[in-house]
Amino acid sequence: xxxxxxxxxxxxxxxxxxxxxxxxxxRTRVAVPGQRALVLAERRGVxxxxxxxxxxxxxxxxxxxxxxxxxxxxxxxxxxxxxVGELALRCDRFALQAERGARIEAPRGAIELDAGxxxxxxxxxxxxx
Length: 129
Hints:
Blueprint: H1 10-19, E1 25-32, E2 36-43, E3 46-53, E4 59-66, E5 69-74
Antiparallel strand pairs: 1-2, 2-3, 3-4, 4-5
């Protein structure tokens, strides 16, 4: 007796079709050490993005090449930046969010905070010295 296989429900098919790139877009996958892969996304023959995917397929690093400039995104369990000299960050706006705490430490130097406008410090308790 032959079993009849039921096709997947329409919502599953629709979601799978949505994940497919448009016909004018292509992806090239290149294996790299550590069970990772580099994925080049192209649209009409022009590379638009470069992704580094982890062993589980999750995107770890994305470089998007757009007319307005390069956009970089990094997804990592831990991120460390070590600079022998100065580490400088320059931008229009800077936002830092830490779920469980933040710390700024200068064991052998001063910490300066300069603002061209008001400085607002908000907390349950603000301890100075």
